[in-house]
Amino acid sequence: MKKTAQLYEGKAKKVFDTDTEGIVIVSYKDDATALDGLKKGTIMGKGTINNRMSNYLMQLLEKEGIPTHFVEELSDRETAVKKVTIVPLEVIVRNISAGHFAQRYGVEEGIVFDEPTIEFSYKNDDLHDPLLNAYHAVALGLADKSEIQLIKSMAFRINDILKEFFKTKKVKLVDFKMEFGRLPDGTIVLADEISPDTCRFWDLETNEKLDKDRFRRDMGGVEDAYEEMYRRVFG
Ligand code: UDP
Fold first, then answer.
1. Which residues have C-beta within 8 Å of that of residue 1, sequence separation ≥ 6?
2. Which of 39, 43, 92, 132 gets mutated to test ligand 1 (max ligand atoms within 8 A of its CB)?
3. What contacts 217, CB < 8 A, 6 or more positions away?
4. pTM for the structure as a whole
5. How far is the CA of 213 from the centre of ligand 1 (A)?
6. Which end is more exposed in the chain, N or C (fewer Cβ atoms within 10 Å of the end residue's Cβ)?
7. In terms of DSSP bridges, do strands 89-96 and 39-42 run parallel, antiparallel, or are they unpaired?
8. What percent of the chain has a predicted confidence (pLDDT) above 70?
9. Atom of ligand 1 nearest to the CA of 176
C-alpha cells in the first residue's frame, strides 16, 4: 500500500490517500494545540506514542466486538485505517468530574460518578465545538436517531472495556473523547484516536495527571507523562 495525495492536515495528524480503495493512511504529528487552538506547542515523541497506543486500544476493542477503523500499523507514526466519513460529533464519556464539566457546573474535579455520563459537541471549529443534545444533532442532520442510539451504546461499552483495561495498568480513566465514522455501507465504526491527547488519565493511587492536561495547564512533565502512559500500556 502506497501513500498518494495528502487529503487533509489537522492539528495532530495528517491523512493521506492510498493506492488501495477504501484505505487511507494517518500520520501522527508531535504538534499539540489546546484551549480552542489558542495554545500551540510540540510534545516530543507524542506522535509515536499516540499512534501505537491508539492502535493497541482499537485492537483490544475489536476483540471485544467493537468495530473500528483500524487496519494495520505501518510504522511508528503511520497507520492504515478504513476511509470513513466522520460523524461531526465529539462524543465525551466521563467517569469522574474534571475539565469543562467541573467548570461548567461549578464543581470540583475528582467527584466519582455512580454512572458514567455522555455528552455531544458539534465538531465545528468556527463555532468552537458547541455542546448539543441528541435532538439538536438529529435536527441538524449530523446523524439520525438510530445512529445516535448506536453511538451512545457503543460509547458506554467502549468506556466499560477501557476503564477495566486501564485499571489493570493502575490508571483511572477520568473521561475521554471519541469520534465515530461511517463506512460506505453506512456501518458506524470507532474512528480518530484514543490517546493521552483525548483521554484524562490519573494515577490510580496518587491521582497524578498522565495526559494532555499537563500541556493545557502548563504543569511541566508533559513528555514524561506521555512516556509513563506508554510504559504502563506496553510495559
Ligand atoms: N477532548 C478532546 N478534544 C476536544 C475536547 C475534549 O480530546 O476538543 C477530551 C479531553 O482530553 C478530555 C475529555 O475530552 O479527556 C473531556 O474534555 P472537556 O470537555 O473537559 O474539555 P477540555 O477541558 O479537555 O477542553
1. 18, 19, 20, 23, 25, 74, 80
2. 92
3. none
4. 0.97
5. 9
6. C
7. unpaired
8. 100
9. 15
